[in-house]
């Protein structure tokens, strides 16, 4: 048998928690009312978390609390107290995004298990080493990794004493997790604060600016991936060294949680028992599709990143395909289908004029065996040939019962004359459950409960024991063996059930049944206390304040520019820029990009001396189908000891320090509070470019007495997404030869329903970078930024030509000089945005 692999299920509500455990989950992750990335779910309070932990721990299930959002200035004390109270309530681990919170948990609450969220964008070996440095016990890897990469990172993690967790099923974000600013920039709802508005599921048109028309595509939802499904790849994931398989879905129903967890429980058990994956039945595939599906893909697991992983035509649940409408007569659709249906099923018709749903009041067929579906106002446009799907199955409804699944027990009763009545209960072992049927959901769950409790108590399962009064001889009628068994087995209002009962009883025993009931209840209470003791009444350690780091004292204020080609870099230098940053991928010969276009003419001169390389947000190991392997890219050849570089991920911070470089932390690493600033310093940061989601007041709170130089973006495009999928692929087949791709030589943009245009740039490795439709310009706020303590100001010239770059840098220099000389501000540029400087995020 292979080593135990955890099946981790989501719970956005108490009912979903019950569904996850009833389906056989080994662990459940859930969120509290704040600091979790699914604030739209029902979520839990500290009080209901205690109830959830008791329910789960009684069945050997672990509870992980999500603290997977960025934490703003002034919130850290509340976040830490939230963690401490959740730990007291019984939480087994915490899933964390913020590096400051992660570092402080390791320092002040080492008893709690720290898991790094997928929001930390861990996708390379340096990221694993950084996780170990933070004290993490587990890392949830980025979704954009192949099996080969996962295996490499899992081996490295094992050397560091860290577990690897991967998503196995559920929704895919098109953007690298933790890197999406689209929802917040468009509507103020931050994906990094748990309030994502899912702008990626809206319709867009892809345009080539030179052609001035939208480009052909298979559908309108150009940012909407299909759902991940690895049910056929469990064996390979286990072999790769994955310790936990995670199901996405804290916003989904208990029915979804139960169905998906059940199917994965069955397949994982088969793999762990035989080391060979079983063929997944069509019934189980239908259960997954019925639960929720935008279409299924293994996507990046197999190195796929093209159109076949996308759900261009439909961004929401497709459901289970039933067939097509054969005919329409008398306001009734006649559908040919082989799928078994039930009253209460919800069907959806896909018509040329939109979609409409119908609820089956009854299952009726005509004399040709066609399903009869009455049509109403919502489905009046249904025509023959239209497709029909079941989007909700009545038979799959989850019946919530907080006592289920019941814990199987081994009981023993001793009734000897002259001795106290004694009843003992202990959790049944897997061997004790020989009669359980492992081919049913209930049987698998019972075996899973037994196995988990055995693992939770390796030195032996606890025994609940209670004694009553001494047994007397019967004065009239003696109790029978069957009488005793029947009354001990009355566990209907408890979370337990008897798997077997041994009765050691003398002849001619006389005892009242109420005495049996009382001792039975006391023994069960004792067992409950013993099973829950490890997670109840935890004592919190006393905390001591972290010693503040000395404040940094920058030599002066500087204007920086991010340039993607030598022409813009030189123009910025001539205009007075103090610092020139260049994306490492744009240093490559033939990769100079002007205003988003690949342009060989831009490389007629070299970059000026002293440019600072910017390490990419996505920097995979060169193994398997990774783009770095396919195209032979190595951005780290531009790193040098004693020279500065900008790190745009936690892994890059770690490797940069290992290389002896001087570290700038870029805005894609969310440094949003005092402790994350301190943690950045521990990774060698000398300058930090703050998150674009901070307000002026929040910037001021961080910049005051900051231990590093603080920078903000002043002018230019704001990057909204970084995607592994190339957004230009929607217009047709792609060779993935990015260096010679003709599409990269023309400016492209996505156009939304309101007419806003979002520029798209494809980098040297074929990854997409989506930018805001409105340029940022806060140069007019220079006096306030100076007063707040900001000393570095970035002009992002990614979408500019040389002339525009010079003008933008000149504007920044002028704004700085005017503010320093007399405290005045320059005028605000029209048709620009101030981003979140004054409006903040929710």
**What number of domains?**
4
Question: DSSP strand (E) fraction?
Answer: 15-25%
Number of strands: 39
The secondary structure category is alpha/beta
- Could you say what the CATH topology of the largest domain is called? TIM Barrel
Q: Give the averaged pLDDT, no decimals.
A: 94
Coarse shape = globular
CATH architectural label of the largest domain: Alpha-Beta Barrel
The gyration radius over C-alpha positions equals 31 Å
The amount of helix comes to: 25-40%
- Spans of 5+ residues with little confidence (pLDDT < 50)? none
Count helical runs: 20
Sum this structure up briefly.
By secondary structure, this protein is α/β, with parallel strands linked by helices. The chain folds into 4 domains: 6-174 and 224-309, TIM Barrel; 320-396, Thrombin, subunit H; 407-535, no CATH class; 558-730 and 738-822, Alpha-Beta Barrel (TIM Barrel), CATH 3.20.20.70.
Topology:
Elements (H helix, E strand, L loop, with lengths): L5 E6 L2 H9 L4 E5 L14 H13 L3 E6 L8 H14 L3 E4 L2 H10 L4 E4 L8 H10 L3 E3 L6 H14 L2 E8 L11 H6 L17 E4 L4 E2 L12 E3 L4 H6 L4 E4 L6 H21 L7 H10 L4 E2 L22 E10 L2 E5 L9 E6 L2 E6 L11 E4 L12 E6 L14 E9 L4 E8 L13 H16 L7 E7 L1 E2 L7 H8 L7 E10 L3 E2 L2 H20 L25 E5 L3 H9 L4 E5 L9 E2 L2 E2 L13 E3 L12 H5 L12 E4 L2 H9 L3 E4 L8 H9 L2 E5 L6 H8 L5 E8 L2 E5 L24 E4 L5 E6 L5 E4 L4 E2 L4 H7 L3 E5 L5 H21 L20
Parallel strand pairs: 1-2, 1-11, 2-3, 3-4, 4-5, 5-6, 6-7, 7-11, 10-12, 19-23, 25-26, 25-39, 26-29, 30-31, 31-32, 32-33, 33-39
Antiparallel strand pairs: 7-10, 8-9, 8-35, 13-14, 13-18, 14-17, 15-16, 15-18, 19-20, 20-21, 22-24, 27-28, 33-38, 34-37, 35-36, 36-37
């Amino acid at each position: 048998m292979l080593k135990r692999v955890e099946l981790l299920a989501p719970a956005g509500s108490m009912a979903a928690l019950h569904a996850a455990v009833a389906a056989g989950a080994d662990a459940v992750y859930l969120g509290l009312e704040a600091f979790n990335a699914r604030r739209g779910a029902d979520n839990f309070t500290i009080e209901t978390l205690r109830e959830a932990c008791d329910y789960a721990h009684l069945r050997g299930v672990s509870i992980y609390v999500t603290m997977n959002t960025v934490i703003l200035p002034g919130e850290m004390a509340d976040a830490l107290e939230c963690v401490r109270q959740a730990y007291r309530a019984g939480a087994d681990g915490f899933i964390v995004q913020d590096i400051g919170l992660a570092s402080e948990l390791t320092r002040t609450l080492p008893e709690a298990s720290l898991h790094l969220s997928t929001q930390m964008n861990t996708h390379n070996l340096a990221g694993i080493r950084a996780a170990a440095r933070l004290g993490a016990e587990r890392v949830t890897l980025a979704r954009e990794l192949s099996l080969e990469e996962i295996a490499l990172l899992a081996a490295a993690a094992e050397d560091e004493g860290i577990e690897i967790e991967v998503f196995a099923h559920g929704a895919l974000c098109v953007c690298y997790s933790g890197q999406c600013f689209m929802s917040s920039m468009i509507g103020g709802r931050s994906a990094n604060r748990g309030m994502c508005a899912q702008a990626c599921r809206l319709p867009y048109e892809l345009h080539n600016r030179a052609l001035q028309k939208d480009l052909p595509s298979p559908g309108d939802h150009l940012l909407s991936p299909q759902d991940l499904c690895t049910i056929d790849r469990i064996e390979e994931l286990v072999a790769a060294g994955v310790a936990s398989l995670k199901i996405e879905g804290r916003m989904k129903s208990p029915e979804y949680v139960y169905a998906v967890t059940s199917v994965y429980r069955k397949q994982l058990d088969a793999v762990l028992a035989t080391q060979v994956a079983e063929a997944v039945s069509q019934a189980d595939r239908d259960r997954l599709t019925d639960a929720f599906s935008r279409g299924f893909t293994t996507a990046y697991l197999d190195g796929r990143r093209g159109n076949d992983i996308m759900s261009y035509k439909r961004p929401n649940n497709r459901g289970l395909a039933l067939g097509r409408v054969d005919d329409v007569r008398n306001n009734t659709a006649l559908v040919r289908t082989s799928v078994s249906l039930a009253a209460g099923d919800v069907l959806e018709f896909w018509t040329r004029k939109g979609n409409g749903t119908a609820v089956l009041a009854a299952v009726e067929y005509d004399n040709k065996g066609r399903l009869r579906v009455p049509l109403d106002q919502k489905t009046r446009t249904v025509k023959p040939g239209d497709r029909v799907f079941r989007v909700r199955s009545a038979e799959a409804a989850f019946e919530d019962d907080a006592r289920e699944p019941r814990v199987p027990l081994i009981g023993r009763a001793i009734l000897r004359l002259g001795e106290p009545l004694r009843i003992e209960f202990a959790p049944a072992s897997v061997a004790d459950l020989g009669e359980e049927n492992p081919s049913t959901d209930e049987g698998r769950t019972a075996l899973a409960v037994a196995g988990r409790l055995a693992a939770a108590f390796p030195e032996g399962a606890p025994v609940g024991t209670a004694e009553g009064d001494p047994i007397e001889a019967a004065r009239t009628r003696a109790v029978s063996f069957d009488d005793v068994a029947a009354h001990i087995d009355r566990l209907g209002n408890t979370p337990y059930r008897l798997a077997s009962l041994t009765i050691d009883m003398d002849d001619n025993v006389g005892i009242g049944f109420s005495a049996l009931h009382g001792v039975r209840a006391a023994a069960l209470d004792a067992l409950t206390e013993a099973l829950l003791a490890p997670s109840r009444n935890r004592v919190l350690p006393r905390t001591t304040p972290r010693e503040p780091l000395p404040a940094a004292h920058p030599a002066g204020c500087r204007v920086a520019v991010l340039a993607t080609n030598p022409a813009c870099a030189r123009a910025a230098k001539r205009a007075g820029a103090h610092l020139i940053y260049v994306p490492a991928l744009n240093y490559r010969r033939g990769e100079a990009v002007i205003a988003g276009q690949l342009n060989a003419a831009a490389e007629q001169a070299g970059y000026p001396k002293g440019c600072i390389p910017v390490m990419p947000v996505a920097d995979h190991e060169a193994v398997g189908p990774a783009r770095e392997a396919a195209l032979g890219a190595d951005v780290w050849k531009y790193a040098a000891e004693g020279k500065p570089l900008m790190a745009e991920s936690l892994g890059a911070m770690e490797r940069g320090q290992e290389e002896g470089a001087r570290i700038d932390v870029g805005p894609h690493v969310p440094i949003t509070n005092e402790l994350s600033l301190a943690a950045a310093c521990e990774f060698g940061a000398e300058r930090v470019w703050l998150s674009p989601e901070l307000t002026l007041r929040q910037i001021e709170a961080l910049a005051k007495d900051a231990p590093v130089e603080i920078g903000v973006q002043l002018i230019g495009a704001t990057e909204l997404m970084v995607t592994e999928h190339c957004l230009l692929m929607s217009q047709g087949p792609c060779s993935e030869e990015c260096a010679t791709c003709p599409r990269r030589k023309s400016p492209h943009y996505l156009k939304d329903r309101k007419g806003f245009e979002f520029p798209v740039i494809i980098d040297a490795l074929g990854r997409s970078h989506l930018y805001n439709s409105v340029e940022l310009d806060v140069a007019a706020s220079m006096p306030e930024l100076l007063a707040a303590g900001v000393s570095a100001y970035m002009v992002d010239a990614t979408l500019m030509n040389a002339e525009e770059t010079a003008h933008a840098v000149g504007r920044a220099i002028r704004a700085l000089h005017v503010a320093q000389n007399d405290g005045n501000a320059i005028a605000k540029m029209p048709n620009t945005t101030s981003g979140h400087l004054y409006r903040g995020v929710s």
